[in-house]
């Protein structure tokens, strides 16, 4: 029953954001300030899974649908429904046939047959899949391993088979695996310009990484405030734990990490986010969240392992180092830009 209640909470939050105009206000160009304020508010009131559910739609789904909507038809209709909060759309990109960091090898295929277009394959670890009204699927339209070999398919979620892939963690995110076994499509399920899907997806990922930075900053600040308050309340020696120099030193290191993340997020929000800067921000988020959550769990000790405590939050927030691009893969990409990055630093 608790899982069902949180699932209802996630869809109710999305509807309310639509009714209030927050979806439109926080998902358009120059919306980073409003988005940051909204994510901080959601993080303070809802479980991680619910915030993840909203974040993916605001940062990726809505911008993608906005790009696809000018073509009219199904994309425009679904965009308007999502913008009003009346429809939940799951972005189905991560593929069962390839590593999440190597979408060029994805195996979900869009084929043209005598009876019309057909979609065949599977997607894994898809946020909002469990209660989506529509699926926006990234599919291979040609066998050539090239950026132009991909297309968007927008279809009713009922055309696919969905099963849960994360139930113990991320409650409220609706994470599921999607089976697209030889699904017949109507012509209007094919949306967007041919050959543009991967480029549009990569552009959306930059926005999602900025949103991740805004959320990570708010989450770390909330956890540090809670930890600081508890350290000043809990007895230790002749005073409280905060009086211990080693405790303050560990806490200060967390503050330094948060300050660096704050500066990087501010820089990213100030202008166009280049691909390399987006990768740097993504890795910074993952490292900062890990350092802050691990530090606070250690500082609060056994208290962190209560039901719903910081230890559980640390397990869930490990996603910052995996979802949207694993840190290891991103570091490989960053290393390829070493000369450019070093030149920028020197100049």
Automatic annotation (TrEMBL):
Transmembrane regions listed in the UniProt entry: none
GO molecular function, one term: acyl-CoA dehydrogenase activity
GO CC term (a single one): cytoplasm
Residue ranges annotated for the Acyl-CoA dehydrogenase/oxidase C-terminal domain, each copy included: 203-337
Domain Acyl-CoA oxidase/dehydrogenase middle, residue spans: 90-183
Alphabetical UniProt keywords: FAD, Flavoprotein, Oxidoreductase
Pfam families assigned: Acyl-CoA_dh_1, Acyl-CoA_dh_M
Full protein name: Acyl-[acyl-carrier-protein] dehydrogenase MbtN
